[in-house]
Amino acid sequence: MAMIDIKSPENVSTAAVVSLGLLGGWLSARETGARPLGGVVLAAAGGWAARSWLAKTNPATTAALTGLYVGGFGASHPLAKKIGAWPAVAVVTAVTAGAAYALSDAK
Length: 107
Prior knowledge:
Elements: H1 14-32, H2 35-56, H3 59-83, H4 85-105
């Protein structure tokens, strides 16, 4: 028996992982002042989600969801100038997590 039992990719809730990556990455960077730490959280969650998307769906859906995840991160910056940082991160997280659920987790 292994000390750490990691879920198989098919059993991971990627909507939750995406939320952790976007919200947790932003919060980590904001609270520590270390932007690279936020990037580590963002990248780790994105990699974990992409692993599951590939196992659950197909390469095209995986690429689309990965693009949305990275694009959401990028879009949150200009959106923050219009509506504020916290609302911007919440909006892109909701959109990305909703897409992850609809295109991968609900299947």
